[in-house]
């Protein structure tokens, strides 16, 4: 899942709207929920005064009750998908059995051979890595740092209502998926980390400091961190973005003569492809269940400029490290605004968003229009950004990751 969602920030962000037609049932629903919901939600709702509520209080309570209602529906769907075996049938087969899975040790110099052979293998890896340009190394480090933020992503996924692993060894499908997905992802950071260490081209202390900062700083939560709909959409986008960026890195590494790096990134990309298929499939299932809720969730996630998992990376030197890394990725073609527009288009097609019809509310229709028109807006914004960059001329930034060598950002 961890991936490069740089260009999602290009998506325009109009103010969030509250669904307007809810006030009539607000009071009854809210009181019922106070009795039935968890203590934190009851506490939240219990703070409301029922004495002559002001208009803003009514609107806020309506929004809160609406979200609690949505949350309950999403949670029930998640539980149902686990209980009726849907997750077992449609998601778990997309994980590779451990006995068949690659491990980082399969793809890097071996230490079970003689000392001479070990030195020879490391020397060969370093000779090939010598041809990798700094901009590709920066992209690789940024991807590796993002992959190493995995503890935060597992923690976030575990907060999804109805989909979490409450005990750490729950037996339901979502919990088994989450642990299996985490185990597969864990190899990505390990593999890239070891390659970067062995290749000798990067300042590992600065890279490790960046990972340390990222884990300490965490990631900004999604719009509704416990929302299953938001999580499934977010997961689909992230996995696809990660597939694109690792696959492009593999291709460019091959062109620069580093077959080892090309292979590493290629196997990671293949994992991301399977993960994308799983989340996309689950989101499609949710569309079947609640097309109005899902299209509104999709628009909300897009409008909120999906929070990038590595956005808070920090090497202790460059306050705009993530922006600069993103700019290098854009310039080098590893991940671009056009890729983001393509992704939105892909998911609109995959989830048949344009064809949703009779069951949509007014807000659902507005969300549908917004999402279907988004790729065109993103492409237009990309053109404007490229025009601005062209007017500014060449600009470079020094990256601590590559011993403070300057790397072109545009
Ligand atoms: Fe993944
Ligand atoms: Fe990954």
- Describe the oligomeric state of these chains in a short phrase: single chain
> What is the arithmetic mean of pLDDT?
86
CATH superfamily: Ribonucleotide Reductase, subunit A
| SS element count, helices | 16
Q: Hetero groups bound?
A: fe (ii) ion
* Low-confidence region ranges: 1-53
CATH class: Mainly Alpha
Strand order of the largest sheet: 1-2
Assess the beta-strand content as a share of residues: under 5%
List the domain count as a whole number.
1
Largest sheet: 2 strands, antiparallel
Spatial separation of the terminal alpha carbons:
28 Å
Give, in order, the helices and strands.
HHHHHHHHHHHHHHHHEE
Amount of helix? 55-70%
Structural class: mainly alpha
- What is the architecture at the second tier of CATH? Orthogonal Bundle
Strand element count: 2
Organism: Sorghum bicolor
Binding site for Fe cation 1: 147, 185, 188, 272
Subunit structure: Homodimer.
GO biological process, one term: fatty acid biosynthetic process
């Amino acid at each position: 899942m961890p991936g490069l969602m740089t260009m999602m920030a290009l998506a325009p962000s109009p103010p969030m709207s509250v669904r307007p037609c809810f006030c009539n049932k607000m009071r009854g629903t809210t009181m019922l929920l106070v009795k039935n919901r968890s203590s934190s939600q009851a506490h939240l709702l219990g703070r409301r005064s029922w004495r002559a509520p002001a208009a803003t209080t009514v609107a806020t309570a309506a929004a809160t009750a609406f979200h609690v209602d949505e949350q309950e529906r999403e949670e029930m769907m998640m539980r149902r998908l686990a209980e009726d075996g849907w997750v077992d049938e449609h998601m778990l087969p997309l994980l590779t059995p451990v006995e068949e899975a690659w491990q980082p040790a399969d793809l890097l110099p071996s230490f079970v051979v003689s000392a001479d052979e070990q030195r020879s293998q490391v020397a060969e890896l370093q000779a090939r890595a010598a041809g990798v340009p700094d901009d590709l190394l920066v992209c690789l480090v940024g991807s590796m740092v993002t992959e190493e933020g995995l503890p935060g992503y597992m923690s976030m996924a575990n907060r999804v209502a109805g989909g979490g692993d409450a005990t750490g060894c729950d037996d339901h499908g979502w919990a088994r998926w989450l642990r299996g997905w985490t185990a597969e992802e864990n190899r990505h950071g390990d593999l890239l980390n070891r390659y970067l260490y062995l290749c000798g081209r990067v300042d590992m202390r600065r890279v490790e400091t960046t990972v340390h900062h990222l884990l300490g700083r965490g990631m900004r939560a999604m719009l509704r961190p416990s929302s299953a709909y938001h999580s499934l959409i977010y997961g689909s986008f992230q996995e696809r973005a990660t597939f694109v960026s690792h696959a492009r890195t593999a291709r460019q590494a091959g062109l620069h003569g580093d077959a080892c790096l090309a292979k590493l990134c290629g196997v990671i990309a293949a994992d991301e492809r399977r993960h994308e298929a799983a989340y996309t499939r689950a989101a499609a299932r949710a569309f079947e269940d609640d097309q109005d809720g899902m299209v509104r969730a999709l628009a909300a996630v897009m409008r909120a400029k999906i929070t990038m998992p590595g956005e808070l990376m920090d090497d202790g030197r460059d306050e705009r490290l993530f922006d600069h890394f993103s700019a290098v990725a854009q310039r080098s073609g590893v991940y671009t605004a056009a890729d983001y527009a393509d992704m939105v288009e892909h998911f609109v097609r995959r989830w048949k968003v344009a064809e949703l019809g009779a069951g949509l509310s007014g807000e659902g229709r507005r969300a549908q229009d917004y999402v279907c028109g988004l790729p065109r807006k993103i492409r237009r914004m990309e053109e404007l950004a490229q025009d601005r960059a062209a007017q500014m001329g060449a600009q470079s930034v020094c990256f601590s990751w590559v011993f403070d060598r300057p790397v072109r950002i545009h």
